[in-house]
From TrEMBL:
The keyword Secreted applies. One of its GO terms (molecular function) is growth factor activity. This is MGF factor. Belongs to the IL-6 superfamily. It comes from the Eukaryota. PANTHER family: GRANULOCYTE COLONY-STIMULATING FACTOR. It is found in: Secreted. Keywords: Disulfide bond, Glycoprotein, Growth factor, Secreted, Signal.
Amino acid sequence: AAVPAGVLALLLGALLWAPWWALDGAPLAELSGEQDFQLFLQKNLEFTRKIKGDVAALQRVVCDTFQLCQEEELLLVRQHLGIAQAPLEQCHSRTFQAEACFSQIRDGLRTYHSSLAAVLELLPGQAGLVETLQLDAANLSSNIQQQMEDLGMVTVTYPTEDQGPLPTFSSRFHHQVGSFFILANFQRFLETAYRALRHLARL
């Protein structure tokens, strides 16, 4: 059964009024019978956790191979490269809307799916892992899109800054640093998405 729009808004709107750690005991018994929605959340929590683990594995490779391990040491290079973080402010902003949060997760996964091509180019020896990560990101994005449609949620497409093609790195070092920040940004993105799904599942 589809989640009634008002109940879904109540469920997801709870994120607007409380910090993450205060949501654990929020009583929303109205949704206790919505097994399909809970199953979706649990399945994609596991999926997101797996993707996080694969990103962390690639981060370790970049650290071990290129000695690029600490963001603080690379911030000036980052500014020069212009590697942007995919936005997720709708998942914890004071203007929280369910459609906006899920849409941003979906769109961000698509962005990182594309950005990982730079990592693949840098680490051909890790092609299997990078390609698996790309496939998982695409599948999770599709899962969210399908669930939004199943729940009758409006698909929101926000105008985003034109990311264009992959950045052109002027040197091997810039390619290494760019890949480092693509992975670091992706990991932060996944952490936020994971927290949103996890606390929704606990409501």
